[in-house]
Amino acid sequence: MKIDLTGKVAVITGGSRGLGKAMAETLSQAGAKIALIARNEEKLTETRDELIAAGGEAEYFMGDVTDEEEVARIAKEVNARFGAPHILINNAGTNCRTHLVDATLADFEGVVDSSLKSAFLVSRAFVPGMREHGWGRVINMTSILSHIGLPARTPYCSAKFGLLGMTKALSLELAPEGITVNGISPGPCGTEMNHAVMNDPEANAQFLKNLPVGRWGNVEEIGALACYICSDLAGFLTGTDIVIDGGWTAR
Question: Are 244 and 223 in contact (CB under 8 A)?
């Protein structure tokens, strides 16, 4: 089975590193043109150059996806460079590990805005172009914390549960127009934010005891799933969320 995304344009927020970068690489290998959106120009430049060196076509667009005016500007620039995109992956987000009584309003708003508000603004900006194509794919990067709760994760759970609700509602709005909307809920993956635990032998061993498959997820596994969802093979898949977590939430 070969997935061919030739002729498709994919927008990926938070696309300069981690899961965003992995998905950009996989979609690029399948032939999609990649528009990377993030705030770190050094990381954006590095990722764009790597995609081009591997034979892909890519460009980056700097901006704050929680700001309405910034998103409008970015959308205009992306459309001018590539034309209306066919694929959108809402991957931007931050986390805040603190107990509710110790969290500030800024802590809460920062996490919710980065995941939920950004997905609203960016989807609103790019969905009209998908309607023009009569074809589109929206992927919202939800989380296992869209399905379960953990202590000291109230802002993050609030954002991700909300993003799952947005996924389901938007899928119903867009289903008649050939546009699918789905979520991917990754479990623990070997990204930069988890390197502190992974590089601590004792902490890593303790963590893996609680993970049924006994290992961290590979970012390439998330990229492969995203590539499938973006393909014509997944045209009947919409309004759902795929948990890819090594069995974490099955316990």
Answer: no
Q: Which long-range contacts (CB under 8 A, 24 or more apart) does 45-53 make?
A: 46/16, 47/15, 47/16, 47/17, 47/21, 50/25, 51/24, 51/25
Joined together, the tokens standing for residue 144 give 């296992």
Is 228 designated active site?
no
pLDDT confidence tier of residue 65, bands split at 50, 70 and 90: very high
182: three-class secondary structure by DSSP: strand
Q: Which residue, chain included where needed, has tokens 């309004």?
A: 239
**What's this model's pTM, rounded to 2 decimal places?**
0.96
Q: Which of 61, 126, 156, 248 is catalytic?
A: 156
Among the listed residues 79, 45, 49, 26, the one whose alpha carbon sits nearest the alpha carbon of residue 218: 26
Which DSSP letter does residue 235 get? T
H or E element in which residue 232 lies: none
Domains (range + CATH), the chain: 9-191+218-244 (3.40.50.720)
